[in-house]
Design brief:
Rossmann fold; six-stranded mixed sheet; 10 helices; three-stranded antiparallel sheet; 2 domains; alpha/beta; 12 strands
């Protein structure tokens, strides 16, 4: 679905490259979490994937096409939800009628259901909605396109707690097996139960590319009252004790993606060795 080969990118000849020799391959039927600190290049990488930026070196191929060529046959099968957006002065119904035709697999019934789930007013103009309502509509529209590639940049920003719960539910129940979803987020807790593959960017490189089951097979995540022990790879103080990561022994823990991110970003070389 997505193949990145020796990707290099810089914004101008006067600045250092943001990416050099970046490689990655993503298949359909998964939800991928793209993680990294501020300035790591997450949004730039998303724009390279969908063709809003052109690689300086190497290639990006989506469904065996180069997205930067902006071929209609590819554009109709991928959808990008940016973190920042502008809505025209039209109603939800008018927007959907004007734009749904660009996507051959668009599911009108799914859009109606999601609008109901998010309690959105169909006859109110988009520019009159709150930021959170606008975001809920864009998520609803994105899912309803049924595009094989959905790229979501900080999709839960601006959502209240009930809406985040609905987001997780509709994401889990609205995707087909031939779709790939890439979510870039700082709000890891909002999506960690959805993600089945983790990509982590640091200084223009992928420092981790792992499926959740691969991580769970190597690492054990737990909360304890004490952080003593030679086998602890990473520890983090929390109310009442510590969250810790240790080598996996019995495969009984679920993966704490936020703790994993902190551990890879701030932990020791020994910790990083476990996720190479």
């Amino acid at each position: 679905m997505v193949i990145i080969n020796d990707l290099g990118f810089r914004y101008s000849e006067k600045v250092q490259p943001l990416f050099q020799e970046l490689n990655c391959e993503l298949s359909s039927g998964s939800i991928v979490g793209l993680l990294g600190k501020n300035g790591a290049g997450k949004t730039t990488l998303l724009k390279l994937m969908i063709g809003l930026l052109r690689p300086t070196e190497g290639t990006v191929r989506i469904m065996d096409q180069q997205p930067a060529e902006r071929e209609p046959s590819l554009l109709q099968d991928m959808y990008f939800l940016p973190e920042e957006f502008h809505h025209p002065s039209v109603t939800i119904r008018q927007y959907a009628k004007a734009n749904s035709g660009f996507y051959p697999r668009f599911d009108q019934e799914l859009l109606k259901r999601l609008i109901t789930d998010f309690e959105l007013p169909e006859n109110k103009r988009l520019n009159e909605l709150s930021y959170g309502q606008k975001k809920k509509f864009l998520i609803s529209f994105a899912l309803s396109t049924k595009c094989r590639l959905l790229v979501l940049d900080e999709p839960t920003n601006g959502l209240d707690i009930p809406s985040k719960s609905i987001f997780r539910r509709v994401m889990a129940g609205s995707l087909d097996s031939d779709q790939l979803v890439i979510i870039s987020t700082h709000q890891v807790r909002d999506v960690e139960n959805l993600i089945d593959r983790v990509l982590m960017l640091e200084k223009g490189k992928f420092i981790m590319q792992k499926n959740i089951y691969e991580i769970a097979s190597k690492l054990h995540f737990a909360t304890t009252s004490s952080a003593d022990g030679e086998n602890i790879l990473y520890r983090e103080m929390v109310p009442g004790g510590y969250k810790v990561i240790t080598p996996q022994t019995d495969g009984s823990s679920s993966v704490d993606i936020e703790l994993l991110f902190n551990a890879i970003s701030n932990g020791t070389e020994k910790m990083r060795e476990y996720v190479k």
